[in-house]
Every structure is written in C-alpha cells, then in structure tokens.
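User: Here's a chain of 171 residues. Predict its fold as tokens.
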Amino acid sequence: LPLPRREGSPGLLVAAIPQKSWPALIEEYRRITQPGGWIILTESDALATTNSEALEALSSLCLKAMGQAGFYADPDHRLTAHLASFLSNVGLTDIHTEHHTIDVSWGTSAYAPLISNMKIALSLLQPFILKMGYSSQHELDTLYGQALRDMECDDFLGHGDVVRVWGQRTE
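Assistant: Prediction complete.
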C-alpha cells in the first residue's frame, strides 16, 4: 500500500486474502478502482469439509492458529459474514453476495486441484501451526500422512464452501 492509480486502472479487482488488513486494503482497492468499476471478494471460512478425520483435524488446527494470529474478523472464524460490510464501509453500492459449494470428492473435476493445493498448503502451514502452539511436529506428521492417504482413496468425499461478494464504485 498504496497501490498506484493510473489511467486504464482495472475496472475489476479480485481478492482472496486474510482479514488482518481488510479495511485499509478495501479502501485502497476503492481508491484505484475507476468509477463504475467493481470489487469482488472471494473467501471461505474453512479449507474444506471432508470424510477424512485427519484432514478435518489439520483444518481445525490451522483455523485455530489463524484465528489466534488475527487473520479472521471474529473469534468464530466467520470472515465471510463481514465481506459485504467491508465493501459498504468504503461507500460501494449495488452489493451482492453469492454462496457456492464446490464438490472436491474423488473423481470430480475439482478433486485434482484440491489435492495439489492441499498437499502444498498443509505442508507449508505446519511451521505456523507449531509456532502458534497448537500441535507437536509428531502429531502434524501423523495427521499429514494420514490426510494424504485419505485424499488419495477413491471413497474420499469433500466439499468447499465459498462466498463471493461484489460491489460497485459509483463515484
């Protein structure tokens, strides 16, 4: 911050970010969005809901650590409930909200990208979870290994809930 504003600035901005700096960031997005342009926010309150106990445990540890670190709008980790107000607070109008559920079960089109992203994310998040004091390395290694095995089974079931909110800068 601040972001440069130039002639030909984008009329559409897409963000999927943690909450910590939302008010200032959304104000900056409003500033650089041309009048008549739109800001779209896409977020989720959880990684995914699955039939893997290990993956659910890792997701829970991750959300607890992120909540403790201040990455969510309130202690219940419900960032998505605040997205519309973030836009309204900076004067955007014509605000809309959509809820989407994405099937990430084995054999679906979203399965392969989920597995790829989850392997990377769950590996990279381990030092953060350790630093926040929510687990031991042994527990994380055990859960991570089991989650990988679970996700690669043909009976793996899961879905991700995503909220998209958008509003228009009118002035």
